[in-house]
Amino acid sequence: MVSWAITGATRGIGLGFVDILSVDPKNQVFAIIRSRATAGPLEELAAKRKNIHILVTDISEPRKLDQAAAEVSKVTAGSLDVSILNAGSAGPETSALPPTAFRGKEEALEKEINENIKTNLISNIYVIYSFLDLVRNGKEKKIIFISSPSGDVEFTRVTGISTVLGYSISKAGMNIVTTKFGAELAQDGIKTLSLSPGWVNTDAAQAVTGEPAIREFMLKAFRKLDQSVNGPMPVDESVIDQLQVIQGLTEANSGKFLTHRGNNDWF
């Protein structure tokens, strides 16, 4: 039996992890969400599969996260095999602006960066802290951060995408944080990984790239890296690919930033 905890499990990639992992009754799947109000599909899935456990918490609140970890511990006898840090956000409405657009708008710049750092970096550190003792007691001992190519220097350089400034900074920052945890915790047998899911057809992605003009811009940018890109992949395809990478994670590649292909191929 393998235990999995996934944050941001209400929809998109997080819900995809819960769906695919819970097919195997030997998996214990903990879906960590902020509110049941938007968790209709997750609730329906959990009603059919008894190995899904829904935990409502706030990942920006360490005490609440500790309580969620205690609930996991009751089910697993004090252990957790894989912690998947999937929750995140693209931040405030200024995410569409390039760096120079913030000149003379210091408050907007600070909000753009700080909100993303709090949501995508600090909150993920809190999740690691709260579940760390359980992971130490697990068999797999894996901590996985769902990152983004936006946090990669070479991807940004080649595609020329200058927007989502705060989001990109927070993802790049959490990549190195994940590596730092891997360096520190290697002595405990814990392995960490930052993992890009690829270009995935989620509601969040559609909200950003759904308009024809924006979609065309993104395709043009992405094709600078891969001429074969035609659009985002289905959620289940991305999740299946990611799980293969997670299952193949060893001490040898712990701390790396890989794509769903297990290498540096973004699409």
Give a short overview:
By secondary structure, the protein is an alpha/beta fold. It contains nine helices and seven strands; from the N terminus they run E-H-E-H-E-H-E-H-E-H-H-E-H-H-H-E.
Report what the structure shows:
The protein is α/β, with parallel strands linked by helices and 267 residues long. It is 47% helix and 13% strand. It contains nine helices and seven strands; from the N terminus they run βαβαβαβαβααβαααβ. The protein starts with a strand and ends in an 8-residue tail after the last strand.
Per-chain topology:
Elements lengths: L1 E6 L4 H11 L4 E7 L6 H9 L3 E5 L5 H15 L5 E4 L20 H31 L5 E5 L6 H7 L5 H21 L5 E6 L6 H7 L2 H11 L12 H13 L9 E3 L8
Parallel strand pairs: 1-2, 1-4, 2-3, 4-5, 5-6, 6-7
Helix pairs in contact: 1-9, 3-4, 4-6
Identify the notable features of this structure and list them briefly:
267 residues; alpha/beta; globular
